[in-house]
Amino acid sequence: MITRELNAAGVTDPALRAAYARCRDLNSRDGKTYFLATRLLPPHRRPAVHALYGFARWADDIVDDPDPGLTAEERAVRLTKLDDDLSAALRYGRSAHPVNAALCDTVFRYGIDPRLFTDFMRSMRMDLTVTEYATYEDLRRYMHGSAAVIGLQVLPVLGSVAPPGTAEPHAASLGVAFQLTNFLRDVGEDLDRDRVYVPQDLLSAHGVDRELLRWCRVHRRTDVRVRAALRDLGAMTRGIYRHAARGVPMLHPASRPCVGTALVLYRAILDEIEAAGYAVMHRRAVVPRRRKARALVPALARTAALRVRAGSPFADRRAGGGALPGTVTP
């Protein structure tokens, strides 16, 4: 499959093909929902998405490496090394680091703004020292770099039939909605890392503090006050999903099944959290396979129909021919 994708994308250099394959492995291993949705993209667009996800995963793994022997300072050194190598790659157009090599190629192919990676790395460094956020506004500033920029990075790869300034806020919202869903799902696991991403003012409004969260984690129970706080954050996340969904019709038609399916699958995690009464302190919400299948089948049908319409004005174009990447000529 990776050979077909790289051939379609016009990636011929053996080292670069290996770099993209490494990123695809990271995506398939750690981003199962994203990877599933990515399979709905035209083959030539997939390697770039794998590269963007692979870089984000690589940096996140440095921050969250489970090795207890690693200090925050050692993690910071590794992040700085990754960041410095990426800066050099973007400056000189090459890198010996496999993930950065694929990312650099993707950035140049699709004209992605390098400043988005600066913002991303800033948020990754915050995770080494910041363990809680006083208000949602404080959390939002963190999520700009850790989530919103991911949507903005992917947008040029997906392509848009709307002006970038119109589509970008919705792409950013999708990244934020995904991350808030992760925060809700992983409250217990994040607490084990001494992190609380639910804003402190929201917790305090319901009489929740770290001591109560730890009690819930240890006793495998979810206090009614914790449920109320998480319910409020869930409602906020629903609103962000609604804003993000309005951007799906703005995407290139060939990319809509992928993004629409990712949105449905990730929002289904939120559904499962709600159905469980926000009992997330001791369990991880999982979307049943049958529900995933119900979301995937119509998306596959839409994807097949688009490929049949190969001669239509909205037919997807291979990289290197037709419209510039990230654009469409109606």
UniProtKB/TrEMBL annotation:
Pathway: Carotenoid biosynthesis; phytoene biosynthesis. One of its GO terms (biological process) is carotenoid biosynthetic process. InterPro entries: Isoprenoid_synthase_dom_sf, Squ/phyt_synthse, Squalene/phytoene_synthase_CS, Trans_IPPS_bact-type, Trans_IPPS_HH. One of its GO terms (molecular function) is squalene synthase [NAD(P)H] activity. It comes from the Bacteria. PROSITE patterns: SQUALEN_PHYTOEN_SYN_2 (PS01045). Its cofactor is ATP. Keywords: Carotenoid biosynthesis, Transferase. The keyword Transcription regulation does not apply. PANTHER family: BIFUNCTIONAL LYCOPENE CYCLASE/PHYTOENE SYNTHASE. Belongs to the phytoene/squalene synthase family. This is Phytoene synthase.
